[in-house]
Amino acid sequence: MLVVHALTAVGVETDRAAFDATLRTLLAALPLKQAVALTAELSGAPRNAVYERALALKSAAEG
């Protein structure tokens, strides 16, 4: 079964900014695996989605 949740337009950018801020903070202090696990736990986001975002953030910071 696949469940898809739609995001409402109001507050999406604020939520994304807060999500990214949390993930960046944890990535700076912890190994990738732990930062992803904690961010997924705190946000309720799927771990695979958090991992993909973490890789994108790391790539952007390095490039």
Please describe what this structure looks like.
This protein has a domain at 29-63. It is 73% helix and 0% strand. The chain is built from three helices and no strands. It has helices spanning 12-29, 32-43, 47-62.
**Nearest-integer average pLDDT:** 84
Gyration radius, in Å: 12 Å
Low-confidence residue ranges: none
Helix content: over 70%
For the record, give the distance between the C-alpha atoms at the N and C termini, rounded to a whole number.
Answer: 38 Å
Number of alpha- plus pi-helical segments: 3
Range of strand content? under 5%
- Biggest sheet layout: none
Tertiary shape: globular
Instruction: Give the topology string: H per helix, E per strand.
Output: HHH
Class by helix and strand content? mainly alpha
Q: In total, how many beta strands?
A: 0
Summarize the structure.
The protein is mainly alpha-helical and 63 residues long. The chain is 73% helix and 0% strand.
List keywords for this structure.
73% helix, single chain
List strands and helices in order, with pairings.
Blueprint: H1 12-29, H2 32-43, H3 47-62
